[in-house]
Write a structure and sequence with these properties.
about 20% strand, single chain, signal, 15 strands, 4-stranded mixed β-sheet, alpha/beta
Length: about 450
């Protein structure tokens, strides 16, 4: 056999190493799908309504994750609703990113969010149960875990801030939200002004935080067996749709070390006026005082014009232009070299004072921003008597206590194993460096857990 020279062998080995390390050999949006070691795990709670175009919904959220300067992350999708998310497979085919995979789909009538327009009592509790299961499917290398809904977005440097927070147990970012200054004058509550917050301050308290605005120390969360779905015993009457705030305050009360990203608005809670401006829309704040109004919404120019098409609308509403508050870095939610407007048209009631008072009555003093709290001191006792009980007279009893004090309660169970609406769990194809304990949820060939 003809001998091969040592230099030739070394050259061949070097070439193999270079080719294996070439980022272009990875998948779209992922420099090296097989070798990346996820340090950040994102649980994405989604449903069919998060489909749509690339400027909104799940596609926009995934794009914001792929723009992160830190690439070592994994996103786990959980789907729960009464109807299938038919666009999901197409979206995952489009993004071609192995860091993103579907953990479970709970589809069936019992998982319907609403019946006849009213929220089903167990929906959010079941969704948080599913969120807890997905959290425990995160990679073993996870340092930070966060859960978010499938229509939110993140600034491109948010994961970089997590990497700078090694000594913390919670990273809490301020965030853009329709609930910014929820008891202040409509439209003006989002305006840039001296001594006003850049966005909604994250105080890690009910009414002052959001599920997607917080990242938790994964090791500690698992070690202490913290579960959103088990918070009914700590919530003192708050329903499951408020468990993000209950969890935030519970870890705060038990000594978790927090790093606040104050006046750094790195999370966009959908919908927000800032995102609405990016999309070229009009912000409708005309029903922000009405529980059915959802604290505001983003509408098109043509939809806004329809509001003024009748004499009633012309007499009841007005449209103003506002310069939006921000941390000066709205471009961080966009692809490189993109621009966005910081001005937006905003609809509100002509009787601004009356609408503002109605907003104060609906949200109560506990939901007021610090800059707006003094306004409540000037209200009469008869007016204050109309505050919601959980944010008015019971404020001290409900929120000054230690939320981690156990109280027995019933948490809605997961569906039975042999239900006709059996949840569908999926097993991820694992990289060579990773293995999972047998106790984690996987699916066999027969689909059983």
């Amino acid at each position: 056999m003809k001998s091969i020279s040592v230099p030739l062998v070394l050259a061949w080995l070097c070439a193999c190493v270079i080719l294996r390390a070439d980022p272009s050999s990875g998948l779209k949006g992922q420099p090296d799908a097989l070798n990346a070691v996820p340090a950040i795990c994102v649980i994405i709670r989604t449903y069919w309504g998060h489909g749509g175009d690339s400027h909104s919904g799940l596609r926009a959220l995934i794009a914001s994750l792929q723009r992160q300067s830190v690439k070592e992350w994994e996103a786990i999708l959980v789907v729960m609703d009464s109807r299938p998310f038919e666009d999901l497979s197409l979206i995952l085919q489009e993004v071609q990113d192995e860091r993103i995979w579907t953990f479970a789909e709970w589809i069936g009538p019992k998982f319907s969010p609403k019946t006849a327009g009213a929220w089903n009592l167990d929906y959010h509790a079941l969704l948080y149960n599913l969120t807890d299961e997905a959290i425990r499917a995160c990679p073993l290398t996870t340092r930070w875990v966060m859960a978010t809904n499938g229509d939110n977005e993140y600034a491109a440097s948010f994961f970089e801030e997590l990497q700078k927070s090694a000594d913390s147990d919670v990273v809490a970012s301020d965030f853009y939200s329709r609930y910014q200054r929820s008891t202040a004058a409509p439209c003006e509550r989002f305006a840039q002004a001296v001594d006003m917050p850049a966005c909604k301050p994250n105080k890690l308290q009910w009414c002052h935080t959001d599920l997607g605005a917080n990242a938790f120390n994964y090791e500690r969360l698992i070690r202490e067996d913290r579960r959103f779905g088990a918070l009914a015993q700590h919530s003192n009457g708050l329903t499951a749709d408020h468990y993000d705030g209950v969890m935030a305050q519970a870890v705060l009360n038990t000594g978790w070390k927090v790093r606040h990203l104050t006046n750094h608005c790195m999370f966009d809670h959908s919908p927000s006026p800032q995102r609405c401006a990016r999309l070229g829309g009009v912000w409708d704040d005309s029903l922000s005082h009405d529980p059915a109004g959802g604290a505001g919404s983003c509408i098109s120019r043509s939809e806004a014009d329809k509001h003024f098409a009748t004499p009633e609308g012309q007499s009841a509403l007005e449209e103003i232009t506002i310069q939006l508050s921000s941390d000066g870095n709205l471009q961080a939610f966009l692809p490189p070299n993109s621009t966005t407007s910081t001005r937006i048209q905003c609809l509100r009631q002509r009787n601004v004072e009356q609408q503002t008072l109605q907003m104060m009555l609906m949200f109560g003093p506990l939901c007021a921003a610090d800059v707006d709290a003094p306004a409540f001191a000037g209200l009469s006792d008869s007016t204050a008597a109309h505050f919601p009980a959980q944010t008015g007279g019971l404020q001290q009893q409900v929120f000054a206590h230690q939320l981690h004090t156990p109280r027995p309660t019933r948490v809605p169970p997961q569906p039975p194993r042999h239900s006709t609406h059996q949840p569908s769990y999926r097993k991820k194809v694992l990289p060579r460096w990773q293995s999972r304990p047998a106790s984690r949820h996987t699916v066999g060939s027969d689909g059983e857990l």
